[in-house]
Structures are given as structure tokens and as C-alpha cells.
Amino acid sequence: MPVISAPHAFNESQLYVDLRSIFGRALYLKCEGFNFAGSIKLKAAVEMVENAERDGLLTPDSIMVESSSGNLGVALSVIAASKGYRFLCVTDSRCNLSTRLLIEALGSEVHIISDLDANGGFLGARIEYVRGLCASDQRYVWLSQYTNPGNWQAHYRRTAPEIARQFPRLDVLFVGAGTTGTLMGCARYFREWHRPVRIVAVDSVGSVIFGGKPGRRMIPGLGMSMRPPLLDESYVDEVLQVEEADTIRACHRLARSGFLFGGSTGTIVSGAMDWMARNEDRDITAVAIAPDLGERYLDTIYQTNWLQDLYGDQVLGPDEVAGPRGSEPAPRTTGPNS
Ligand SMILES: Cc1ncc(COP(=O)(O)O)c(C=O)c1O
């Protein structure tokens, strides 16, 4: 029976969903959403905060500041509340409303950037804002998830060994890419492991992490509008890019079986299932990492009007529509969210 006094002391590390019954292929989905921050970012947040404390960067009057699309912001809010630090999260207008409310409920502040930067994303503008704050007052401490080695080390020390313990014959690992902390930590660990593991990075179309053309991306978490400083592509065997419409379909197909996951999980599962279809002649042990759960996306990915406005009326097919299997997509409704 786990009994804790600090919220970050609990993190479910051994839960996997076998997707065979939903997608017809055995992919084991490691669920990282079962902790008090609701996402994989709790690991990176703990590692970065504890390193900063150890190095004397954080003191009782510090104000932590971070640019986050949401989940790291929630994780840092949890830790800040528990340890008694102030925290200011700089995010942008793509951040889910519920994520923003969560951060505020935990006692932290949120600043929303709504002007796009020169790359057509918000990241540059968010980082500029954080830099300005740090220059204005010495109490601000920027952990900088984009460059902080603690971000990938958390997954080298925890996420990858957790997978290795449960899957001693692992062949392929699918990891979503944002800051690439999860990707680089897992990739570095498995590069040193006793058997080769194919590391497949999953990114969204419109992200420029691995090059390619910038484009519209509405789902937070995965993808970046700049090249992540933590990325070392020599550790990555393959890169998959997934269209947001496919992400949406995978999310709804999972939800239809009772598994409500976040957007990036839909991206990763969609890419992984395509990959597995191309490699179906091989007997492969495959794991994918699901960074969070779906409740934070109720007013976006799981909201009919949001979906239809952005991706068209036909985005969901009979396999993805809730209700009796094979029923028609829900009719368009009007209401407070339309
Ligand atoms: C939901 C979600 N998926 C994926 C990622 C990407 O993880 P990483 O930053 O380790 O690349 C994040 C990062 O914030 C996230 O919040």
C-alpha cells in the first residue's frame, strides 16, 4: 500500500495497455498519466527541481518560471505547491483551458502568449518572455526544459529501466518527441542495453523537430516549432510524422474502448500501428509510451464542434465514433463551446 506525504512521491510505473484487442496488433502502451500531475512530465520536473536545489540555484525566495505547453507547467505547479516555491508558467493560446485552471488551482500563475513568432509557432515568443522576466528580477529561476539535461536524465534513470525490467526482449520502442527529453533519455539507455532496440521517434506533421516544413498544429505536447537543443539524431533509428487527423482518429478509437488518452498518445499509437502494419511479418515485441490521459482534452479532441471546425465533418469514421459500433458521427450541435 503506497502511503505518501509529497504528491510527487507516487508515480505508477508498471501499467501497460495491450492494444491488440483494439487495433489488432500487439503494441504495449506504457501509461504515464497516473500520478498527481497527470503526465510523464512529473519525472522531468522532479529531476530538474531536485538538481537545481542540489546546485543551490533554487532558494526559498526563488520564483520558478518555465515555458510549457501545459503538462510541465502542471507538474511544476504540483512540486512548487508541495515544496513552497512560487511558480509562473508561460504558455500560449493552444494550452487547454483545463490545464490552465489546474495550474491556477495549485496556486501557480499562468501567463498566456498569443502572438505567433517568426516560425509560425509560439515557442520563440514564450522563451523571449521568460528571458525578459529573468533579466528583470534575480529571483526568477528558469529551469529551461529545452536545454536542461535533467529532462532527458529523468527518463534515462526511470522510464527506460522501467520498460527494460518488464520487457527483457524488447525490439522496438515508439516515443513521441517534444523537447525530446523522453526520446533522448530512453534512446541513450537502450543504446547501452544488452540487445539492440529500434528507437522510433513519433512527431506530428507541421513540427520542425527533424526538419521539414512548419505547419499548423493544434494539439499541444508533441512537436516543436524549433529544433530541440536536447536532440541528438544519431540515437534515433527512424522518424514517423503523423497528421493531426490521424491522431484524432486514434484517440477516438481508443476512447471507444474506454481508454481516454491525450492527443500525443493518439499520434504515437497512430504512427506505431502504421509501422507495425509495414512490419507485420516479423515477430516483434513493441512498446509505446503514452504521456498523459484524455480529460485535459475534453474541450478539444473530444469535442465534436472543435473537431469539425478544424478537421472537417468527415474526420471520424465508423470505427472511431462513440456509441453503438458503426453508428453515424454525432450531429453538429450549437452551445457554449461552439
Ligand atoms: C502530452 C505530451 N506528450 C508528449 C510530450 C513530449 O515529451 P518530451 O518533451 O519529453 O519530448 C509532452 C511534453 O510536454 C507532453 O506534454
TrEMBL record:
InterPro entries: Cys_Synth/Cystath_Beta-Synth, SbnA, TrpB-like_PALP, TrpB-like_PALP_sf. Keywords: Pyridoxal phosphate, Transferase. One of its GO terms (biological process) is alpha-amino acid metabolic process. Pfam families: PALP. The keyword Transport does not apply. Residues 22-283 form the Tryptophan synthase beta chain-like PALP domain. Its cofactor is pyridoxal 5'-phosphate. PANTHER family: CYSTATHIONINE BETA-SYNTHASE. Homodimer. NCBIfam families: PLP_SbnA_fam. This is 2,3-diaminopropionate biosynthesis protein SbnA. It comes from Streptomyces nodosus. The lineage of its organism: Bacteria, Bacillati, Actinomycetota, Actinomycetes, Kitasatosporales. The gene is sbnA.
